[in-house]
Amino acid sequence: MSEEAGTSASIASGQRHYGLDWLRIGAFGLLILYHIGMVFAPWAWVIHVPYAFPELIVPMALVTPWRLPLLFAVSGYASRHLFAKSGRNDAFLRSRAKRLLIPLAFGMAVIVPPEMWVLVREHGYPNGYLYFWLHDYLRWGQFWSHEFPSWEHLWFLAYLAFYTMLLGAAIAWRGDRLFAAFDQLAAWFTRGPRLLWVPVAALVWAKLSLMFLIAERQGLVTDWTGHALYMPCFLFGFMMGGTERLWPVSGRLWKPALATALAAGAVDALIEVFYPGSTPIGHATMALDRAARITMAWAMILVMFQFAQALLNHDHPWRATLAEAVFPFYIIHHPVIVLIVWYAMPLQPSALALFAMLLAGTLAAGTAFYLLGRRIRWLRPLIGLSAQPRAKPPAAAKRLAAG
């Protein structure tokens, strides 16, 4: 990835960045593969299997720190362009609420319950799924060792909606000042290596300041250490989507950012190897681990944004379809993985056979979910698609994209 490639492509306001589309597609695809890998990794996950491959520790440790921060950064970038397209703050917020909160509600009512049934069954729950859904799913509090209600993997939608609404409230209150602050901050980041080291220092400081005071616990009102990382990544993407001046900076810094990410990833991987699973870990080592993860997360965001800018910023006939399909795939994939494992384990498949079933089954279920949902108008908003099907490009545009 050359610096010239990073500086030559100008991203006009409102113009679609195909590279960020491809990056979003790849990030969600990686997330799905990661969850399949968690079935075989030697860490506790949502469902238990008699497999544990220590060989997965290092590759998964090198992915874990940055996969979700990258998604929040890409989502922030997309939000900036959706804001520009909407024209008004209230229209932007209504649009984002529909695209995030409706699938979240649908997922919690329809998609998540089968997974929760499997989880309580693992702890001895005696009843079938229909009885569970009608009588026991809609409750509040602990039930068979699990918290209800639950959004499971859909927590990402809840967090993203929360950040978007907070941003919208800030824009409504002091929008001019906020956008001026974004412009000033972007200009400040253009000097030297500030875009790499200042956010790392700030994020590490925030994480270490909170982690020994507040438990690391997922939840919209409990995950303050998570918010301290994810929301700045979202806001960075939003800022990046509104300016051209940071793209040359990412082009200039991607090499030191990559070196930083590799060094931090090596530290995190070594800690995972020497302290596997729930092995007790001292405060100093835990602090080093969290600092390494955050350093790798930020550095990889810069690397991947530059990768998208320099190598992926071009259209393809499949891009629009894949970009539309990744959201439905994300919504359905997690319970599909859990259900496949639950029903496959009595057959005692080999690890390779189970992996093949998970890969093929997740791909088939996601494809069917998307193809069916996009054709049924009332179902489209429930699975994260626009209410109206996207317009097909004219034949000339198709030929141009294909060429």
Automatic annotation (TrEMBL):
Pfam families: Acyl_transf_3 (PF01757). The keyword Transmembrane helix applies. Signal peptide: none annotated. The chain crosses the membrane at residues 25-45, 57-79, 100-120, 154-173, 194-215, 227-244, 256-275, 295-313, 325-345, 351-372. Residues 18-369 form the Acyltransferase domain. Keywords: Acyltransferase, Membrane, Transferase, Transmembrane, Transmembrane helix. GO terms for molecular function: acyltransferase activity. This is Acyltransferase family protein.
